[in-house]
Amino acid sequence: MAGPLAHLRVLDLTRVLAGPWCTQTLGDLGADVIKIERPDTGDDTRAWGPAWLSDSDGKDTEDSAYFSSCNRNKRSVTVDISKAEGQALLRELAAKCDILVENYKLGDLKRYGLDYASLALINPKLVYCSITAYGQDGPYAHRPGYDLLCQAEGGLMAINGHADVDKGGAGGGPVKVVIAVTDVLSGLNATIAVLAAIEARHSTGRGQHIDIALLDSIVQFGANQIATYFITGKLPERVGNAHVNLAPYQSFKTADGYMIVGAGNDGQWRKLAAAMGVPEMAFQPEYLEMKDRNANRPQLVIDLEAILTTQSTEFWLDKFGSLGIPHAPINTYDQVFAHPQVQHRELRLDMQRPAEQGGGNIAMVRSPIRMSETPVTYRHAPPVKGSSTMDVLRDVLGKSEAEIDALKAVTGA
Questions:
Q1: Is 31 in the same domain as 98?
Q2: What's the pTM value of the predicted model, to 2 decimals?
């Protein structure tokens, strides 16, 4: 079954993570995504190993696992964008596409005649999405930027990590989120904006330029933390795995590890105390209501951990399982993919590269998007660099074999 975006074609001039995350999502939803890569090295992340993808013989390929995480459902075409013939080829493709997504530094594509203003003259219906670190305007617009820098500048690192020692925490200072969350969020925001622009095109008949900035995305991610700062003027502080408004609601030691235990309201708190064998604790004045538990959080944590460490994580998971008490194990990824709900939802996805691309299985994570009538489709495994160059030139642009042969200097095909 064709996906809901099967009628759309995307010209993908992105690499690394934010842009490819957007275009993979569009591809998952059925769009025909043509990924443009450098003939020599391709997408930067192809070389970001270990680990490496394997071919059908179990041998390492030149493509990393990182690359596979965000490049399925795409066709790879190699073009040397520095050559006039390559630029002309991309303009031809842009004329045949509905969407273009790029994450070049500000102004880079303008010198090649591949900026929005230039391509809109060729294809007024083109939805053109630019993803940069700081956006298309402002004093930082020309600066390069990366996830870690934006996590730092955008406030996320200042609130992520354990509380300082002088405030009763383990210390350690600001900590980044291990996943490149700024890139992933920007890719999702780009996807939302592209789909909105396509919807607007139904009314206007015109495309538009979309400006997505990593810094904007991570600042917006501050959500309730920033809202509280705006209202109170107080800067949020690092609280580790605790919740700034709920107590208890954090990780606790058990006899053999750690787990999450929480109580989102007073009723849950009383259930939790009873399940732990200390129902009277729920009615102690210092723990009676949420405001009391928040005010006395340090002692509350000590009291609860003294009980939780008497039994294993599995014991408490079984104990709390049917009581409606927020709780969870802290799983490693092997445990995640052994989790019954994860297995039921089939979140591991195995795709095979075609034999002509060397074969081999690629394990990935299934899209979280579930649609009843137009489900996500998985048509192409993450491609070998340039594997669809000839097909796209022939089928999309209608090039003859002689014309394709004449373009070898810019395509490497």
A1: yes
A2: 0.93
